[in-house]
């Protein structure tokens, strides 16, 4: 996930109507009043990855500064992730929806799991059972709501931060004992998040 964007972010920004313009492919010229957070959300990239790519150990940026941008998450992957979040997190607080999306992104970044959002979402266990129940029961095919889409954008911008959770479960809906042995990082709503 450390590759530079291969397409011109200027064209993407103009097509998206964001008003942002890039100096060159994979870069952004900072304007007055901008923050790494809003640049990350605009381009759909991780703030932490932007900091790393630009050798920044803090959030300070200055007007006129050219920032290199990390690889962005594709529209298709965002939509797939939002559908998973929607299916897994109906009735859960917004923070929990962001955390569910973050688990998938953490798995992509982990050596223990596949290297793409699509491959993580559709991964099966040794017994052929999908890792996420909405994939197996067809709920993944239902459209995501706006809150799930927003949660995915926030999770992408915060990518690499947090408690490194790789799992989540609802203790009232699972009898799996193995998942209960994992180190709990946080409980949000009905979901327990763990490493």
UniProtKB/TrEMBL annotation:
Residues 26-69 form the LysM domain. Pfam families: Hydrolase_2 (PF07486), LysM (PF01476). The keyword NAD does not apply. Keywords: Signal. It comes from Sutcliffiella horikoshii. InterPro entries: Cell_wall_hydrolase_SleB, LysM, LysM_dom_sf, SleB_dom1. The keyword Signal applies. This is Peptidoglycan-binding protein. Residues 1-24 form the signal peptide. It comes from the Bacteria.
